[in-house]
Amino acid sequence: MVDYVSHQTPGTVVIDTGNTFLFLVLNDHQAMRYGIGVGREGFTWSGEQTVARKTEWPDWRPPAEMISRQPYLPRFMAGGPGNPLGARAMYLGETEYRIHGTNKPDTIGKRVSSGCIRLTNEDVMDLYERVKVGAKVIVLPPPAPNRPSREAPPDAAFRSPDPVAPSNRPSATNAQMQSS
């Protein structure tokens, strides 16, 4: 739990791609903070979605666009400990994007995905229990090149042991979605 001043409704998820943190707003002054892995260069996006559904030990079907980039991928993988979606998944609107677990905890804090947001399995199980279907999810734009990424979300003040610079970022808007 961290100090986090926000004007968002409790239960809102704010994804700070620049700093690789996900915040679950608890009240006007606090949030749960989770480390995340985010989209690699060319696969970042921003905008507002809702949690459309949640699944425990989800099956994985890579989208056609991902298979065309990586033809060696399986067309289907049943849910379970070896599945790349990990222990839980929260599907974002009608997009291919998810907030999901990972079996590769060393990817947290890195830009490695095709646009999905990943957490350790332990963290995604905790978040899964706290987030409701229908919850708002705000994905903040990544920082512009040559601009420090240690910024707080546009409507929030965040205090932690790490220094945080004030934000000049515009608020999140509906995303131009890419396929995962």
From TrEMBL:
UniProt keyword terms in alphabetical order: Cell shape, Cell wall biogenesis/degradation, Glycosyltransferase, Hydrolase, Peptidoglycan synthesis, Transferase
Enzyme class name: transferase
Source species, domain of life: Bacteria
Catalytic residues in the record: 100, 116
Pathway involvement of the protein, from the record: Cell wall biogenesis; peptidoglycan biosynthesis
Coiled-coil regions listed in the entry: none
Molecular function per GO: glycosyltransferase activity; peptidoglycan L,D-transpeptidase activity
Protein name: L,D-transpeptidase ErfK/SrfK
GO biological process entries: cell wall organization; peptidoglycan-protein cross-linking; regulation of cell shape
GO CC, one annotated term: extracellular region
Pfam families the record matches: YkuD (PF03734)
Family stated for the protein in its record: Belongs to the YkuD family.
Biased composition (Polar residues): 168-180
Domain L,D-TPase catalytic: 11-140
UniProt-listed Enzyme Commission number(s): 2.-.-.-
Region listing for Disordered, in residue ranges: 141-180
PANTHER family listed in its UniProt record: L,D-TRANSPEPTIDASE (PTHR30582), L,D-TRANSPEPTIDASE ERFK_SRFK-RELATED (PTHR30582:SF24)
